[in-house]
Structures are given as structure tokens and as C-alpha cells.
Amino acid sequence: MRRILAAIVLLTAVIGVVFAIIIRIGLPMRALPPPSGGLVGAVDALATDGSRPDLFSGAVQRILPFQILYPASVAGTYAPYVPDAGPQIDAIAKSHGWLFRVILGRIGTLAAPWTNAATPSACGPFPVIIYLPGVTGYMQMGSFQTTELASQGYVVVTLNQPGAVAAVVLPDHKIILGLTRADASSMIAPSYLAEPSALPAGFAARLEPDKSIVPYFAADVGLVLDRLTQINTDPVHILHGRLDLDHVGVMGMSLGAIVTAQACATDARIDACLMMDAPVPTEVAAIGLRQATLWISRPAEDQRLERAASGGWPEDEIAAQAATIEQALSNSPHGQLVQLPGLYHLDFTDLPAVQPMIGWLRQSGPVGAVQAHRQINQLTTEFFAATLGPVVR
User: Fold this and answer.
1) Neighbour count for residue 326 (Cβ, 10 Å)
2) Which pLDDT band, with edges at 50, 70 and 90, does 6 fall under?
3) Which of 120, 131, 130, 118 is nearest to 153 (CA)?
4) How far apart are alpha carbons 333 and 168 in whole angstroms?
5) How many CB atoms lie within 10 A of CB 62?
6) What whole-number percentage of the chain has pLDDT above 90?
7) Dist CA 357 CA 378 (whole Å)
8) What are phi and psi of 70, to 5 degrees?
9) Confidence of residue 143 (pLDDT cuts 50, 70, 90)
10) Contacts of 53 (CB under 8 A, 6+ apart)
């Protein structure tokens, strides 16, 4: 009997140690597959807006890092998928719970499907597409989509928006934490819900009454377009003359989609707008968008199925998404909607591809990540080929 008890104690201790190690270092992950087109290069850049304070760091000016993916002819140096992964994991776990530390704990070990400072393709200039990720995520979370576009001959610019993403590490190593899930909901919802919750106390005094944070984030798009103009005319920059800023698209998912619609309504330089799995700001839905516009979403039944599996998606959110998209479509002469059955919200991100546990935890829809990403990429590349013009790389 003593031997049995001793074995049980030993086994329990071993399981505890293994569990502690898993919590600390995370579960195994897998790198994204390479895109279907040519090589992709990457370079980081920075935009500064001295006319706006940063609402999240308290700085007197808004500093916005971003990444530029571009068609390449010769590979550059090794690139990690998520640089500075530690602060990202800490912030995501704080917002979404300890399980995400386990799920994403090794994300910093993955290689990216691009290389840094690769030799740009001799063709071009290339149409430019700006990508905005969802709230409490990380900048690279839509790379299955952005790298595919870059491999097909587009320059894709992904914004690392302080406040929107979970954490931003600035060049001086200062860390700006993003909104928590609760604060994000209350600061975004006024853009599309008739009866949103009150703004967080720390932000209520800095935003107009009953206004959301969406216009503030949308101003980042124009800021980056200005910076890209400077980069395109800089004779020493690796992308000098390679950006076709007469053909510009903007795309995003979740919060990024809401901000995309707002930016498209206010910036005449944008020619094409693609929004994924999100409502439309009511003021934008009321007037519509003049650009070629595509909404990619999923049926309400799948949103309810996701709610039953993993929570979220209350009825007022489902209704608001359907109603605002319908109104926006009726007021947008070049708008279209495609619904993809069998997808969950995270299927519009890299997460189910880099971490199989997402599917096992029923956070990914019945279609599966491979098929979901294939469908989304096909719609995306066809849309931008039709609206920004076919490209040669």
C-alpha cells in the first residue's frame, strides 16, 4: 500500500512539474506555411504625428510603428514571426486569461514567412494595401493573408497601433499596453451600438461624449499614407520608387475592419476597402462608401454556434453587425458582401494555423483553418486584383 501511495505521489509531482513547465514555456507551435507566390521581404518603419497626443502612453505625440511587406527577388536575413514576443504574450494573457500564455507561449520561436531587408523585385511600382489587425491581438496576426498578397505583387503595410494591439514595443524599448477586452468593448461599441456601455473613466475626459475610439485609430491610416509618400521619394530607402500610391487599399478584421470603414469614409486617397467579420460604424453605414468595397463575414448561425462553443457574440452584437452591413451595402454603390459558412472569428487570423490547440478548444470553426484561410485569401486576392489592378512581380 505504501508503494502505491508513493507511486501516486511521485506521479502527481511529475505531472505538476510538467504542467508548470508547459505553463511557463507554452505548448509547441508551428510556423505559417509559405505563401503561394514569390518571395516576400520585410522592413520596419515608423510614423510620428505631432498634432495628436497618444491616449495610451500619455506622450504628447502619437508614435506608430508599422511593417512593410513587399515582393522580393532575393531573400534577406532570418526574420522571427513575432519580435519582442514576451510583452505581447504577457499582455494577451492578462486580457484573455492564463490559457493564452500556454497557447502562445512559444510564438517568439517561430520563423516568419518573410525575410528582413530582402532585395525588392525589379518590377513595380506595386499597389499598396494597409492592414489593420483586431483588438488585443498582435500586429502579425493576419500574416496568412498579408504575406499571400505580398507574394502576389502588392506592398502590404501592417499597422502596429498602440492601444489597439495588446502591446507595442517602441524603438526606445518603451512598452505601450493596449486596451483590455472590457475597455475595448466600451470604447468601440459607441460606433455601432445604440445603447453602448459607458466609456472607461480614464478615457471619458479625453474623448467627446458618446464618441468611440474609432476615429482616433482611423487617423493612423492617413498618417501612415503620408509617411509612405516620404519613403517612396527617399533615394536611400530600400523601397524608393516601389510604391504605387495612386492605387491604395485598406483592409482589416474585427476592430481593424471597423477602423477601415471609418478611414475609407474620410480619406479620399483610398481606392478599395475590405472589412472582415465586424459591424460598420453607424455614421459610415448611413452614408455608405464611394470606393470598391467588400465585406467578408459569416452567417448569424455560425456566430451563435461559436457562442455556444466558446462564449461571446451576444445577440445585440450579432444584430448590429448584420444591420450596419446591410445599411452600408444599400448606400455603397460598389459594395458587396460574401458570407463564409463554418468559420469562427479567430479563423480570420493566424492563430488556428500556428496553434492547433485553438481548434481542439473549439475556438476555430468546423471548416478548419486550412480551408478558411484558402477561402479568405482567394476572395482577397480576387478583390484587390479587380479594384487595384492586376500586378506583375
Assistant:
1) 14
2) very low
3) 120
4) 37
5) 23
6) 78
7) 25
8) -150, 155
9) very high
10) 59, 60, 61, 62
Region 2-388: CATH code: 3.40.50.1820
Beta strands in the chain (DSSP E): 39-49, 62-74, 115-116, 119-120, 126-132, 155-159, 167-169, 175-177, 243-253, 272-276, 292-297, 335-339
Which range among 22-26, 64-68, 90-94, 157-161 shows the weakest confidence by mean pLDDT?
22-26
Please report the pLDDT score of residue 18 as a whole number: 36
pLDDT digits (tens, 9 = 90+) for 287-345: 999 999 999 999 999 999 999 998 889 999 999 999 999 999 999 999 999 999 999 99
Q: Are 110 and 31 in contact (CB under 8 A)?
A: yes
Q: Is residue 22 classed as helix, strand or coil in its secondary structure? A: helix
Please name which of 344, 320, 338 lies closest in space to residue 188, comparing C-alpha atoms.
Answer: 320
Q: To 5 degrees, how large is the angle CA 44–CA 48–CA 52? A: 145
Round to whole Å and give the CA distance between 351 and 369: 9
* Summary mean pLDDT of the chain: 91
Whether this prediction's pTM lies above 0.70 is answered by: yes
At 194, the amino acid letter reads: A
Nearest-Å Rg of the Cα atoms of the chain is 21
What is the full DSSP assignment across 35-74?
PSSSEEEEEEEEEEETTS--TTT--SSEEEEEEEEEEEEE
Cell numbers placing 68 = 512593410
Average pLDDT for residues 76-82, to the nearest whole number?
Answer: 97
Torsion over CA: 48, 243, 291, 260 (sign) = negative
CB-based burial label for 83 (10 Å; 0-12, 13-18, 19+): middle
- d(CA 185, CA 304) in angstroms, rounded, equals 19
Q: Provide φ and ψ at 368, rounded to 5°.
A: 90, 155
Residue 387 reports pLDDT greater than 50: yes
| Whole-number Å distance between alpha carbons of 194 and 319 | 11
